[in-house]
Amino acid sequence: MEKTVNQKAWFLVLPVLLLVAFSAVIPLMTVVNYSVQDTFGNNQFFWAGLEWFKEMLESERMWDALGRQLMFSGIILAIEIPLGIFVALNMPKGGFWASLCLVLMSLPLLIPWNVVGTIWQIFGRVDIGLLGYTLDALGVNYNYTQDTVAAWITIVVMDVWHWTSLVALLAYAGLKSIPDAYYQAAKIDQASRWKVFRFIELPKMMGVLMIAILLRFMDSFMIYTEPFVVTGGGPGNATTLLSIDLVKMALGQFDLGPAAAFSLMYFLVILLISWVFYTVMVNLDKREG
């Protein structure tokens, strides 16, 4: 008997497809349209071809912002991944204290990005902020609005405070998935704590760690609200990351063509690196399988 195929279920997906088209595809096509045209206002456009892409590739401003962005993402990953693993390894494995730690670790993730920026903007002020006032009282010259090093330290510490919990929770989930038989075998073999971590815990956490790295890279590479609220990209252009520079170009200077080309290259860089991480994750899953 031939089986009847019912395709009516696709109608349930139609609202989602329409929503994605409205919120993602249509704006993306608009950006593509701006990237190959020039305008002098009054809704009049002139074909520019690849002129804006060439201009952006030759722009020192874009390459400087890209360098700052890569440095920021690299610092964030270098701090948050090991710190998150360390926190997960030292969290209670069960009971009341484990539940309490999970709740406390989740709290920073619930705070909106603009509120995080505002908190650290006030926290670091020398006149009214606890951190700034304390450092000033100790004789430490700390002013994130005028000193480049202080500005970088502030936005890095702010991001570490905000997002290390995500890495810790993912690593903790990976640790909880390890069967007790592995630990019992390691105890019988009298394996050291380092060997247990190296040969049991780390390989079993590798899948969730790749997800954590992917999520943290994408978020840190697209970060805008927090550093903009705290430093505004300053002092000078010291903390002007790619997203901040793009917004300044599009809204501050109203250079729609270069900004559109800039944003498309920005998108392609994120897409490329995310694809690399995804490929590594798939290969790890196949190897474990």
TrEMBL record:
Topology of the protein relative to the lipid bilayer: Multi-pass membrane protein
Subcellular compartments: Cell membrane
GO biological process, one term: transmembrane transport
Pfam name, any one: BPD_transp_1
GO CC terms in record: plasma membrane
Superkingdom of the source species: Bacteria
Keywords from the UniProt entry: Membrane, Transmembrane, Transmembrane helix, Transport
TM annotation in the entry: 12-36, 70-89, 96-123, 149-175, 196-218, 264-284
InterPro entries membership: MetI-like (IPR000515), MetI-like_sf (IPR035906), Sugar_ABC_transporter (IPR052730)
Family named by the database record: Belongs to the binding-protein-dependent transport system permease family.
Protein name: ABC sugar (Glycerol) transporter, inner membrane subunit
Protein's organism: Mameliella alba
